[in-house]
Amino acid sequence: MNQIIIHVDMDAFYASVEIRDNPSLRGKPLIIGSLPSERGVVATCSYEARKFGIHSAMNIKEAYRLCPRGIYMHPNFEKYKAVSAQLHQIWDDYATASERIALDEAYLDVTKRAKTFDGAREIAKTIKRRTQQELGLSCSVGVAYSKTAAKTASEEKKPDGYFEIPTPLDFVNLIIDRDVRVLYTVGAKTAEKLYAAGIHTVRDIQEHKDDVIRLFGKQGQWITQIAFGVDDRKVVPYLPQNAKSIGKELTFQQDVTNEALLKDVMFLLSLCVEHRAKRYGLFGKGVSLKITYADMKSITRSKIVPPCDSAITVYHEALQLFEQVNKRPVRLIGVGIYNLSGEERQLSFDDFLEEPKRAREAERREHFQRLQERYHLDFEGHLEQIYKGEILHRTAEYMRRASERVQ
Predict the structure, then answer these.
(1) For each successive 10 residues of the chain (407 residues), what is the average pLDDT?
(2) What pTM did the predictor assign?
(3) How far is CA 190 from CA 71, 126, 187, 223, 231, in A?
(4) Any idea what the Cα angle at residue 8 is, between residues 182 and 237, rounded to 5°?
(5) Which residue, among 129, 146, 147, has the nearest Cα to 138 in the 3D structure?
(6) What pLDDT does 348 receive?
(7) Are residues 385 and 399 in the same domain?
(8) What is the 3-state secondary structure (H, E, C) of 213-241?
(9) How many domains does the chain have?
(10) What CATH number is associated with residue 189?
(11) Rounded to whole angstroms, how far apart are CA atoms 294 and 254?
(12) Quick one: 70 and 108 in the same domain?
């Protein structure tokens, strides 16, 4: 039996949740992300804001220039995660396999449940109806023979849309004369290279198949397959243990030169990494440090380490990497672990001794005590809040301002 795949994508998810919870925002240009006075980007925006040319990932200053009378809000990620769990619970009712792409997006394999496209159509309509009735939100749904076609279909009639693409021929006929960017495998940089080679549409890709493969190798082979409607990928359920890395990073509202502050923030980021790693029972066999300087130049440094999930270990290893980089004004800093494994690490001699364990616990307490003395905040007593993105950013900003007052 051929595959029948549904792609569900919420319409302006964060903004729609805020409008649902505050109807006075309806019909207004709502921009979720940083505030105009802050550094950052647009996370999402309402369709009214999009009329001004605003889009996701746009610099918030540019968004404000385009729409100075818009309503700007910080995202509430905890609320969005809670709503997302409700959404996926509805969607998963109809799938034998569900691949979660984001909080507001998923591929659903409904081949066995639907049996036919008529059956898939009924499932799609039911998903749209339940999402609206139970959660007060609209979604766009595409039904197709493949993942690529299903995603294309869900975009076709946004917002609150429905579209289906039953066969590869239907897919090709729909996109043949569209820009190469219609293929989700073609990003901005890939598109630039294709344009430079005189390839602008999907038809051009088909007609210059060998050139595309010569330009991009294996990626080019995949692009040409998609251009002919060939995509037999399966819906693969996402498992946290399949992640390649766990990291946490933070952008300061003003550039930071204070090394003590940067190290304190690195400790908080290491705690966040530990929290997520232990939540999923994962160990990292490498530690990484990321820094973006004031001039927007980014660097990443990494090193192989014995398997670890401890904040103290991550912090120490990241500190060693930090000591090796240029000390210039910092815009963003992040730490992480990679080469993840869910397998228990091999016990070392220290694991059988109480003294090393007590030493690590004592060092952890010393860090918290030093932070409390320096910033007059109860960090240890509010870790659950600090793990949340928005609270972490607020805490780091408070620390930055406090350190400036001391200088």
Answers:
(1) 92 96 96 90 94 93 96 91 92 93 93 94 96 96 97 95 97 97 91 96 96 94 96 86 83 92 96 89 92 92 92 95 94 93 51 56 87 86 75 87 78
(2) 0.73
(3) 35, 38, 5, 10, 19
(4) 100
(5) 129
(6) 44
(7) yes
(8) HHHHCHHHHHHHHHHCCCCCCCCCCCCHH
(9) 3
(10) 1.10.150.20
(11) 9
(12) yes
Catalytic residue among 105, 164, 274, 317: 105
Q: Say if CB 161 and CB 126 are below 8 A apart.
A: no
Please report, for the chain, how many H helices and E strands are present, in that order.
17, 12
Distance, CA of 300 to CA of 243 (rounded, Å): 19
In a domain, 232, yes or no: no
86 CB neighbour count, 10 Å cutoff: 13
Q: Are residues 375 and 292 in the same domain?
A: yes
Residues 155 and 193 placed together within one structural domain of the fold:
no
* Residue 43 identity (one-letter amino acid): A
Sheet holding 283-293, edge to edge: 245-256, 330-341, 283-293, 298-308
Check whether residue 188 and residue 211 sit in a common domain.
yes
Is the domain of 195 the same as that of 296? no
CA end-to-end span of the chain, whole Å?
Answer: 69
- How far apart are the C-alpha atoms of 347 and 369, rounded to whole Å? 30
DSSP 59: B
Q: Can you tell me whether residue 339 is helix, strand or coil?
A: strand
CA dist., res. 165 & res. 141, Å (int): 11
Let me know: does 311 contact 271? Beta carbons within 8 Å: yes
Per-residue confidence (pLDDT) for residue 360, from 0 to 100: 72
Q: Is 234 among the domain residues?
A: no
Among all chains, which residue has been given the structure tokens 């990003």? 187
- 183: which strand partners? none
In terms of Cα–Cα distance, which of 48, 17, 23, 43 is closest to 32?
43
Q: Are residues 138 and 205 in the same domain?
A: no
277 φψ region: left (φ > 0), alpha (ψ -120 to 50), beta (else): alpha
- pLDDT at position 407, please? 59
Residues spanned by the domain of 288: 240-406
Q: Is 78 annotated in the active site?
A: no
Q: What is the pLDDT of residue 61?
A: 94
